[in-house]
Write a structure and sequence with these properties.
globular; 12 helices; alpha/beta; 13 strands; 36% helix
Length: 346
């Protein structure tokens, strides 16, 4: 079977998600999940019928939340499917390329490689901002430029002026895809207002983080109608199961939005608690974060990662030397993690 697979698939190293890596413990701070297990009700009716491709109530609810029009909104199986749809819709395998700026989310590369689309990289600068000149020199054959802000795993925001410069630079040449999976923790930094001026902008969103619905697999792509219409040509016929649409719509109701806002405030406070506590430990560098996670540089990142793992505190190793990403959990989880790290260095 391996020999029958496409050459790109044979050579592919799959994305090592938190669940694939595994682990065993009672503190799970490795997948940027929410610690809140909110309850929802659905009667599981109408399961004998296919769902709508784009459930009207859900689309309208998220469009209202995001501040866009329903025709500028597409829902999919997580933002990950949005990444794949954009590549499939706009990139010719063997001809076109995507561009992304490591260190950043790994699925841009995996999705492109799976489809047979070239991957170009222009690393972030030393302060984890866009290298605009480097991007400009690599735009030939590039159809999509992926930018994550807040960036995963670094946690920083990308300078807004640089995003505008990138949009200007790529006019009529490429689509800039802003991955805003963590924007609900800092909504003032969203680029959604730029849709009015830039038809080459697409924005990825998700309910997995701030809305505590990682297991629901519900994401969104925001863009102008012409771009959304292209994506609708390649999306699966029934991408959103009926119970998913019902639960997501509840999460976007007035009461659901109020609960999410409260929980975001709680997580932001816990992030600040972790940041201050870790910053007080000698030899550690804690990078300012804007999502529901922090990137921390340790004297020996592998050692602290393994020690925490063996103690049932599951963190996320980073491709950045000696850095470990720590998701923000509830206060008890944050206290336990901080206490473990403090004791490790005593």
């Amino acid at each position: 079977m391996e020999k029958l697979a496409r050459k790109q698939v044979q050579a592919l190293t799959p994305y090592l998600s938190a669940r694939r890596i595994g682990g065993s413990g009672d503190v799970w701070l490795n997948a940027n999940e929410s610690p809140f297990n909110n309850e929802y009700k659905t009667d599981f009716a109408r399961l004998n019928r296919y769902s709508e491709c784009q459930p009207k109530e859900l689309i309208e609810a998220y469009a209202a939340y995001a501040g866009v029009k329903p025709e500028q909104t597409l829902t999919s199986r997580g933002a990950d499917e949005g990444i794949e749809l954009l590549i499939r819709a706009f990139c010719e395998p063997g001809e076109d390329a995507i561009l992304y700026c490591p260190p950043t989310y790994g699925m841009y590369s995996i999705s492109a490689e799976t489809i047979g689309v070239e991957r170009k990289t222009v690393p972030l600068t030393s302060d984890w901002q866009l290298d605009l000149e480097g991007i400009k020199q690599n735009l030939d054959s590039t159809k999509l430029v992926f930018v994550c802000s807040p960036n995963n795993p670094t946690g920083n925001l990308v300078n807004r002026d640089d995003i505008v410069s990138l949009l200007e630079m790529t006019k009529d040449r490429a689509i800039v895809v802003m991955d805003e999976a963590y924007i609900d923790f800092c909504p003032e930094a969203s680029t959604v207002d730029l849709l009015a001026k830039y038809p080459n902008l697409a924005i990825l969103r998700t309910l997995s983080k701030a809305f505590a619905l990682a297991g629901l697999r519900c994401g969104f792509t925001l863009a102008n109608k012409e771009l959304i219409d292209v994506l609708l040509k390649v999306i699966a016929p029934y991408p959103v199961p009926v119970p998913v649409a019902e639960i997501a719509t509840q999460a976007l109701s007035e009461s659901g939005l109020a609960r999410a806002k409260y929980q975001v405030l709680d997580l932001n406070a816990n992030r600040a608690y972790l940041q201050v506590g870790l910053s007080m430990l000698e030899g550690l560098e804690v990078f300012e974060g804007w999502g529901n996670y922090l990137l921390v540089k340790f004297p020996d990142g592998d050692a602290i990662f393994k020690a925490a793992w063996d103690s049932g505190i599951i963190l996320r190793n980073s491709p950045i030397d000696n850095c470990v990403r720590i998701s923000v959990g509830n206060r008890e989880e944050c206290e336990k993690t901080l206490g473990f790290i403090r004791n490790f260095y005593l």
